[in-house]
Design goal:
By secondary structure, the protein is α+β, with helices and mostly antiparallel strands. The chain has a domain of about 50 residues. Helix content is about 40%, strand content about 20%. Strands 1-2-3 form a three-stranded antiparallel β-sheet, with helices on one face. Strand 2 and strand 3 form a beta hairpin. It is elongated, with a radius of gyration of 15 Å.
């Protein structure tokens, strides 16, 4: 299951750097010298976090599980 999802990046400039956070996922944050670099770094960090969370969930489930979609 690989679907596109939309997340919210909170971004601001601070002391010459662009810094940002993904609002919906605690711990996903980054920085960049430009706004574009920051957004690329956030996208990379978010992708990695989601992949790691999925892998951890699959390891915990082991076998005999079902995947269900949940809309909020």
């Amino acid at each position: 299951m690989n679907m596109k999802r939309e997340f919210t990046a909170l971004v601001k400039q601070d002391n010459g750097w662009w810094i940002g956070w993904i609002e919906e996922i605690p711990g996903v944050n980054s920085q960049g010298q430009t706004r574009q670099e920051l957004l690329a770094n956030l996208q990379s960090a978010l992708t990695e976090a989601l992949e790691l969370n999925r892998a951890e969930s699959l390891r915990a489930a082991v076998k005999d599980y079902a995947e269900e979609s949940i809309l909020v």
